From TrEMBL:
It comes from the Bacteria. Keywords: Hydrolase, Lyase. It holds the Pfam family Amidohydro_2. Residues 17-359 form the Amidohydrolase-related domain. GO terms for molecular function: carboxy-lyase activity; hydrolase activity. This is Amidohydrolase. The keyword Hydrolase applies. InterPro entries: ACMSD, Amidohydro-rel, Metal_Hydrolase. GO terms for cellular component: cytoplasm. The keyword Disulfide bond does not apply.
Length: 371
């Protein structure tokens, strides 16, 4: 979290792979060359993606991460390269964008066009600026067939490693209507990333299971329920049986809930497995094999309790590092990684992500060949 720490150079004994960096456009006008003219007027709206329903007293991005000249934080790849990659000696960083309400639009065609334009802008502006940037294909999930076409359109790009969805959705992601997305991800050998966003916005269900909260503080405290719900759905609906090579990263959803969910799912599986005859293994086994989580926003109990929590969730296997740059609550690497035991630190900082995204096999680590 420490924003002030980002202005100090840091040294770290291991390589670092950052699994969540939010790039954005300088202006929505930047997307016009990539979009049908019919959507240009909509880009002029106060918020061309989707207005937030709740007042949020803290701006989403850190002001000290702005590149200057009135540009928004995360809009200049050269500034972000110096402010993040160089400062912390980050070997690779996966771009996740800022279209965090993309799957809450009532108009699936506009949402798909916006996602496609943003992807092309990222490919043209960010990826060529430095080999350390890796790309995600942002999709709108309202129309899974359009989403699958977008994955196939860009999935062969050598620096693209992930398909990005948001945790806010009309229905849980385990349901079969979303299968075209998973088929396309597997076909293109890409990880599915599920990032927080769109909960309670637009066409999506309320922010909480009990309705809409009064404050952003209340909302922010329970955002992890959406990641829990999506993971629960993917496992119980048998997505990992249908797509045995599929990998899913849960991004910016916290960590502490995972042991509880695995315990509860395994317990109930013993009593109610007749409802899910397609599951051949305990739910926790699917999770440990197919699912990874990112550190930010990591819970901050006493450090001894934090390590215990990470041990319970097999963090040396399941957790990948992320900064969430340039969001207001982003984490500098040393803030998180220095809390971990040495053997866990190396896995979380680098190795879990390298394995999850097959970076060595793709030639995307130092000395690789992909361009």
């Amino acid at each position: 979290m420490e924003a002030s720490a980002t202005k100090k150079a840091s040294k770290f004994n291991h390589g670092i792979i950052d699994c969540d960096v939010h790039q954005c456009v300088k202006s929505y006008d930047d997307l016009k060359p990539y979009m049908p003219r019919v959507w240009w007027d909509r880009l002029k709206a106060h918020n061309a993606t989707l207005p937030f329903l709740l007042y949020r007293p803290i701006p989403l991005e850190r002001s000290d991460a702005a590149p200057g000249n009135g540009l928004p934080p995360g809009s200049d790849p050269e500034f972000a390269k110096a402010d993040l990659l160089d400062r912390y000696n980050i070997e690779r960083a996966i771009l996740t964008g800022n279209l965090l309400s993309i799957s809450a639009h009532n108009n699936p065609d506009y949402a798909a066009a916006l996602a496609s334009a943003f992807n092309d802008y990222t490919m043209d502006t960010w990826l060529p600026s430095d080999e350390r940037w890796l790309g995600s294909i942002v999709i709108a999930t309202q129309d899974p067939l359009l989403a699958a076409k977008e994955i196939d359109r860009l999935g062969s790009h050598p620096r693209v490693v992930q398909v990005l969805m948001t945790s806010g959705s009309r229905e849980p992601y385990g349901q079969r209507r979303y299968y075209p997305i998973y088929e396309a991800a597997v076909r293109n050998n890409l990880v599915i990333g599920i990032h927080g966003g769109g909960e309670g916005d637009g066409i999506n269900p309320p922010t909480t299971a009990a309705g809409y909260p009064t404050t952003n503080f209340e909302r922010h405290n329970i955002l992890a329920i959406h990641h829990m719900s999506q993971l629960n759905s993917l496992v119980c609906e048998g997505v990992f049986e249908t797509f045995p090579t599929l990998k899913v990263a849960f991004i910016e959803g916290g960590l502490g809930w995972l042991p509880h969910l695995m315990w509860r799912m395994d317990k109930n599986f013993r009593a109610m497995r007749s409802e899910v005859p397609w599951l051949k293994y305990k739910p926790s086994e699917y999770i440990l094999k197919h699912v990874r989580l990112t550190t930010q926003p990591i819970e901050e109990p006493d450090n001894r309790e934090l390590v215990q929590m990470l041990q319970l969730m097999r963090a040396e296997k399941t957790v990948m590092f992320s900064t969430d740059y340039p969001h207001w609550d982003n984490d500098a690497p040393l803030f998180v990684l220095n809390k971990l035991p040495e053997e866990m630190r190396r896995r979380v900082a680098y190795e879990n992500a390298a394995e999850m995204y097959q970076l060595q096999e793709r030639g995307l680590l130092a000395g690789g060949v992909a361009k």
